[in-house]
C-alpha cells in the first residue's frame, strides 16, 4: 500500500496575451498585490500561433510569462484561476455589443516534472479540480527539457516559453531544496 503524503509546494506562473502594455502593467501589479512578488519575466514576444483571440481582443497580440517568488500549494490553482478570470473581467472595456476583453491571463504551476494549466473548459485530458476549474498537464519535463503532449497548444511549444520555463524550473528546484 502506498503512503499518502502532502505534495511539495509548486511554482505559480501566469501567461498573458495582450495588445495594450498599460493593461498588462495593471494586471501584473494587481496580481502582485494578491500573489506576491514576481521573480522571473519572459521577454515579450508576438502571439502568432492562432487567430483565436483576434476577434475578441484585436490584432497584433503579444505574449508574456511571469513566475511568482512565493510557492503555492497545488490545490490553490482553482482559486487563482477564479481570481485571474475576475481580473480579466475587471480590465475589460465596454464596446458596442458588450464588453471587449483586453487581456487573457493563464495561470498554472510548475513542478519538477510538469507544467499544469488551469481552465474553465472540460476535455478528455483534463481533470476537475473544483469550483468550475479543470487542470491540464500541458508539458512534461524529461531528459532536461519540456516536451509537449498531444493536446499542448502551439504557443506552449514556443522556444521563448520553453526557455522561460527552464529558467523558472531552475529557480523552483533551488527553492524546494
Descriptive report:
- The structure is a single chain.
- With 177 residues, the protein is of the alpha+beta class.
- It has one domain.
- It has 4 helices and 11 strands.
- The strands form 2 sheets. Strands 1, 2, 3, 4, 7, 8, 9, 10 and 11 form a 9-stranded antiparallel β-sheet that branches. It has a two-stranded antiparallel sheet with strand order 5-6.
- A hairpin with a 2-residue loop joins strand 7 (103-111) and strand 8 (114-119).
- Helix 1 (21-35) runs antiparallel to helix 3 (77-91).
- The radius of gyration is 16 Å and the shape is globular.
Summed up, the helix count is: 4
The SS-based structural class is alpha+beta
Q: H/E element string?
A: EHEEHEHEEEEEEEH
Taking Cα atoms only, what radius of gyration do you get, to the nearest Å?
16 Å
Mean pLDDT: 95
Assign a percent range to the helix content.
25-40%
- How many structural domains can be distinguished in the coordinates? 1
Oligomer: single chain
Instruction: Assess the beta-strand content as a share of residues.
Output: 35-45%
Major sheet attributes: 9 strands, antiparallel
Number of strands: 11
End-to-end Cα distance: 27 Å
Backbone shape:
globular
Uncertain stretches? none
